[in-house]
Amino acid sequence: MATPVIAADHTVEMLSSSNGEMMVFKPAVLKIAPGDSVTWKATNPGQILHR
User: Fold this and answer.
1) What pLDDT does residue 16 have?
2) How many angstroms separate the CA atoms of 35 and 18, rounded?
3) Please, which residues have CB within 8 angstroms of residue 45's CB and are 6 or more apart in sequence?
4) In the predicted model, what is the mean pLDDT of residues 12-33?
5) Are 17 and 45 in contact, with CB atoms under 8 Å apart?
6) For residue 51, what pLDDT is reported?
7) Partner residues linked to 12 by β-bridges
8) Residue 43 reports pLDDT greater than 80
9) C-alpha separations of 28 from 7, 15, 25, 49 in Å
10) How far apart (Å, rounded) are the C-alpha atoms in residues 10 and 26?
């Protein structure tokens, strides 16, 4: 009998800066499986200048 697959929900935070680094993703590395979902969440947006 096959084991049922359980999909996971993951959230990746997009930070404008963290510990002196710019444009940081937390977690930096994410292992996902088929069927998993990933939500990209903008946090600590700061200010982005466009010229």
Assistant:
1) 80
2) 30
3) 16
4) 87
5) no
6) 57
7) 40
8) yes
9) 21, 11, 5, 24
10) 11
CB 14 within 8 A of CB 43: yes
Among 44, 42, 10, smallest CA distance to 29 is for 10
Nearest to 17 by CA among 40, 44, 39, 49: 44
45 in Cβ contact with 15 (< 8 Å): no
- Rounded Cα–Cα distance for residues 12 and 30 (Å): 8
**Is the bond preceding residue 27 a cis peptide, omega within 30 degrees?**
yes
Contact between residue 13 and residue 45 where contact means Cβ atoms under 8 Å apart: no
If one counts every other C-beta atom within 10 angstroms of the C-beta of residue 14, the result is 14
Strand segments, DSSP code E, in the chain are: 9-18, 21-26, 37-43
